[in-house]
Design a protein that fits this description.
Elements (H helix, E strand, L loop, with lengths): L2 H17 L3 H15 L16 H29 L4 E2 L13 E4 L2 E3 L10 E8 L5 E3 L5 E4 L6 E10 L11 E7 L1
Antiparallel strand pairs: 1-3, 2-6, 4-7, 5-6, 7-8
Length: about 180
C-alpha cells in the first residue's frame, strides 16, 4: 500500500471511530482506498520494463480500480436516495418522584432504519431543560437520574441524528416531564 493510502485509511478510520459511524461508512471508506492499496502492482507496467506479466498486472489494476470506484459510487447514490432524517416518537414520558430513580427511553418512528444510517445518535436537549438531577444519554437516548426537586413540570425539546455522513438532524420533538 502506498504511504498516501495508509495516511488516508488512518485518518478516515480514526474519524469513523471517533464519530461512532456505522459499518456501512467504514466499508465505503475501505473501498475508496482499494485502488491505492494495489499501487505496487503498477510498478513495471511501462512498455520497456523487464518485469514479467506487465499486461496481466495492468489489466488487474484497471479492473480493481473500476470495481472499487463503481461500488463506492453505487453505495453513496443508494444512500442519498433512500435516507430520511430521523423522526422522534412522540411518547408521553411518565411522571417521576423527587429523590426516586427515574428512567425513560426515547426512540424514533422513522429515519435511521437503513444499514448505512444506523445507529441513531447525538441525542440532545435542543430547547428547555430537563428536571434537575436528570440527564439525556447522547448515545442511546435514555433519560435517567434521580430528580432532586419535586412539584415541577419541565418542558423541553429533543433532537437526534442518524449516522449517515453528513448526519441528518431530526426536527425538535417537544416533551414534558412532571416530578411530584
Amino acid at each position: 500500500m502506498s504511504v498516501l493510502s495508509w495516511c488516508y485509511l488512518g485518518t478516515t478510520g480514526a474519524a469513523v471511530d471517533r464519530a461512532g459511524t456505522n459499518s456501512y461508512t467504514a466499508a465505503s471508506t475501505l473501498l475508496s482506498a482499494v485502488p491505492g492499496g494495489i499501487q505496487f502492482l503498477r510498478c513495471g507496467i511501462a512498455k520497456d520494463s523487464p518485469l514479467p506479466y506487465k499486461t496481466e498486472r495492468a489489466g488487474f489494476v484497471a479492473v480493481v480500480d473500476a470495481a472499487a470506484s463503481l461500488s463506492s459510487s453505487v453505495m453513496l447514490m443508494a444512500a442519498s436516495f433512500v435516507t430520511d432524517a430521523p423522526v422522534i416518537r412522540k411518547t408521553p414520558l411518565g411522571n417521576g418522584t423527587a429523590w426516586q430513580p427515574y428512567t425513560a427511553q426515547l426512540s424514533t418512528v422513522s429515519g435511521g432504519t437503513w444499514v448505512f444510517n444506523q445507529p441513531i445518535m447525538n441525542w440532545t436537549v435542543s430547547e428547555g431543560k430537563l428536571p434537575a438531577g436528570l440527564t439525556l444519554d447522547p448515545v442511546n437516548g435514555t433519560i435517567s437520574g434521580t430528580p432532586t426537586v419535586g412539584g415541577v413540570t419541565s418542558a423541553f425539546s429533543v433532537t437526534c441524528t442518524d449516522s449517515y455522513g453528513p448526519p441528518q438532524v431530526s426536527s425538535p420533538q417537544p416533551m414534558t416531564i412532571t416530578i411530584d
